[in-house]
Amino acid sequence: TVGAKEYGLHFAADAAPSNTAKGISGGVGMLNGGAIDTISSRQHLASSDMHKAEITAAATVMHRVVPARGLLQEARVPQERATPVWIDSSSTIFVATNRSAPKKSTWVRRKTEELNECYEQGESDPQKIDECDNFSDPQTKYLVGKVWMRHLHYTHNLEGDAPERDEPNKKN
User: Fold this and answer.
1) How far apart (Å, rounded) are the C-alpha atoms in residues 39 and 139?
2) What is the b/e burial string over 26-56, where b = at least 16 CB atoms within 10 angstroms of the residue's CB?
3) Higher pLDDT residue, 21 or 39?
4) What pTM does this model have?
5) CB 158 within 8 A of CB 151
6) Rounded to whole angstroms, how far apart are CA atoms 27 and 14?
7) What are the phi and psi torsion angles at 18 (to 5°)?
8) Pick from 26, 18, 1, 60: nearest CA to 136
9) Residue 21 gets which letter from DSSP?
10) What is the C-alpha to C-alpha distance for residues 108 and 142, in angstroms, rounded to an integer?
């Protein structure tokens, strides 16, 4: 958002699947305007679809949210509200906040259990973010220079407004 920044603890998660190999989980943890944790790791299993890759990435980030909150608590910085976790996949947010959402796959159910527990215990608050604003994108894929600079502007807490985001071409 132009002119606005979140200075509390917050994270973003994203995934980049691959047709030929395992996908990439990416994430960024932010505190006081700066990146305190970056994640760019190969997923341990090849995902059959984008939804499973996004769930894996979100679960990877959740494993970083809980220790960061604990460290802040030990430093006498109370964590009274759930930590926002920005995710660009609506279906991942749905399964993270609804225990009955995953139906058939045992693997998906196990992964979403981690997301459900963090949500239900007040550790995380999964929220939707547009893909073009997801500041964890540089951890998962190559970006064009303008988009990369926009995300870098946010994660490095640079002064001024971030470069304009590219709007998709609208048909008249």
Assistant:
1) 7
2) bbbbbbeeeeeeebeeebeeebeeebbbbbb
3) 39
4) 0.74
5) no
6) 6
7) -135, 140
8) 26
9) S
10) 27
